[in-house]
Amino acid sequence: MPHVLIASLPYLLQGAAVTLWLSLIVIALGTLLGSAIGILATIAGSTIRRLITAYIFTLRGVPVLVVMFLGYYLFPAVGYRVSAYFAVAAAQIVYVSAFVAEIIRSAIVSVPPGQVAAARGLGMRRGAILREVILPQAARIATAPLLNNSLTAVKQTSYASVVGVWELTYAAREVVERTLASFQIFIGVMAIYFVICYPLSMLARWCERRASIVY
Amino acid sequence: MDYVAQILVLMTGLLPKLVAGFAITLAIATAAMPLALVFGLLLLLPRLENSAVLVAPIAAFIEVMRNTPLLLQIYLIYFGLPLLGFYPSEFTCGVLGIAVQHGCFLTEIYRGAIESVSRRQWDAARAIGMGRLKAFRHVILPQALLRILGPLGNQLIILIKDTSLVSAIGVMELTMTGKMAIERSAASAEVFIAIALFYLVLTSGVGGALRVIEARTAGRF
User: Fold this and answer.
1) Do B204 and A173 touch (CB under 8 A)?
2) Which long-range contacts (CB under 8 A, 24 or more apart) does B105-108 make?
3) Per-residue pLDDT tens for A153-187?
4) If you count Cβ atoms within 10 Å of the first and of the last residue's Cβ in chain A, which end, N or C, has fewer?
5) How far, in Å, CA of A125 to CA of A33, rounded?
6) Which pLDDT score is estimated for B186?
C-alpha cells in the first residue's frame, strides 16, 4: 500500500504549487522576451542581428543546469543579493527565451515573401505589414513548437532542485530521505508531473495536426 | 588588469580538473548515445509488427517517459534499483536514465520518418513481390533515414546537454566539477562560463558534423 505517499501528499502538493508557479513565470516571461528577440532578429540591422544569432547559438548549446548555476553564482558575484528562487527563475527565463526567439524567427522567415510583396503592393506600411500580414501567419506556424517548448520548460523547472530551490522534486527528495520509500514517492511525483505535462503535450499535438492542414 | 591575471591563474589551476570532468561527460554521452538509439529501435519493433498486445503498453510507457522530468527518472533508477537488490554505480544509473528517456524520444522520431514515407511506396514494393522485411530494408528505410538526420541530430545534442543532470546523483562530470570548484576554492561564477564554453564546443562540434553529413547525403537516393 502506498501509505507513505498518501501521508506525504499534502507536502508534495505544496511543492507542486511552487513548480506550477515557477513554470508559469518562466513560460510567460520567457516566451514574451523570446518573442521580442525573435521579431527584432527579423527587422533589425546586421549588427543587432549578429548579436541575437550569438545569443541564440550560445544558450542553445549549453545545458540549462549550467545556465542556472551561472545565474546562481553570478548575481552575488556582481553584488546583488537575491534568493536562489529569483536567480534560478531569471536563468530559466533567459534560457527559454533563446529557444522561443529561434522558433519565432524561423516562423517569420517561413512566411512566403509573396505575402509581403502583395501587402506592399496594396500600399501597407512596414508596421502594418508586420502586424497584420506576417505575425498572424507566423503565429500559426509557431504555436505547436511553442507549446512543445513550454512542455520542456515545465520539466526543466525540476532541475532547479539541484541548485537548491524548493519545489516538487526537492520536496520529493526530502520525503525519500526521511522515509526511504523511493518507489512510491518518485512514481507518485512523476504522476503529478504527468498530470501537468500531458494536457500540454496533447494540446501541442492537436496544434501540430491543425497546422498541417492547408486551407 | 589585476582581475584578469587573477582569473587566468585560477583557470589554469582548475583546467586539469575541468578536462577530467569533460572526459567523464564525454564518456556518459558516448555510452548513452548508442544505447538510446538501439532502445528507440526496440520500442519501435512491436508497432512495425502490428503486435496488438505490446503496442498499447509501450505507447503508454513512451507517454510517461516523455511527460516527466529526466531528473526524476534518474532518481527513480538511482534510489529505486537498490530496493530491488541491484546496486549499479552512479555512472551506470545516469547512463541508463538518459538512454531510456532519449530512446523514447528517438522512437517517435523514427516513427515520424517512417510514416512520412508515402503509403504507396509500401504498396509498390509489395506489388513487385517484395516481402515485408525486404520492402522495409530496401524501400522504406533508405528514404526514412534521409528525413531522420535533422531531428536525430537535434536529439543527440539534447542528450549531450542532459548529461549534466547526472551531477545530481554525484557523478564528477563537467557540471559537478564546477560546483565542487566553487565550494572548495575561491573560484566563482567565472568557472561556469568556462564550463559553458566546454559544452558549447562539444554541442556545436557535433551539430556541425551532423550538418556536414546531412549536406553530403542530401543528393543521394
Assistant:
1) no
2) B105/B40, B105/B66, B105/B155, B105/B158, B106/B36, B106/B37, B106/B39, B106/B40, B106/B152, B106/B155, B107/B40, B107/B41, B107/B43, B107/B44, B107/B62, B108/B62, B108/B66
3) 999 999 999 999 999 999 999 999 998 888 899 99
4) C
5) 25
6) 67
* Domains in chain A: ranges and CATH: 3-211 (1.10.3720.10)
Q: Which of A66, A172, A201 sits opposite B164 (nearest CB)?
A: A66
Is a pLDDT exceeding 60 seen at residue A215? no
CB B171 within 8 A of CB B24: yes
Structural domain for B170, as ranges: 2-217
The structure's pTM equals 0.91
**Tens of pLDDT along A44-103?**
889 999 999 999 999 999 999 999 999 999 998 888 889 999 999 999 999 999 999 999
Output the domain CATH number for residue B160.
Answer: 1.10.3720.10
What residue has cell string 508534495? A12
| B80 to A66: CB separation less than 8 angstroms, yes or no | no
CA-based R_g, chain A, Å: 21
CB contact under 8 A, A156 and B193: no
Q: Is B192 on the interface with A (CB under 8 A)?
A: yes
Nearest to B175 among A69, A73, A187 (CB): A69
Return d(Cα A215, Cα B175) in angstroms, integer. 48
Reduced to 3 states (helix: H, G, I; strand: E, B; else coil), residue A122 is coil
Chain B residues inside the 8 Å CB shell of A77: 188-189
Q: How many domains does chain B have?
A: 1
| Cell matching residue A208 | 501540430
Asked if A159 and B69 come within 8 Å (Cβ–Cβ), the reply is yes
Chain A nearest-CA distance from B27, in A, is: 17
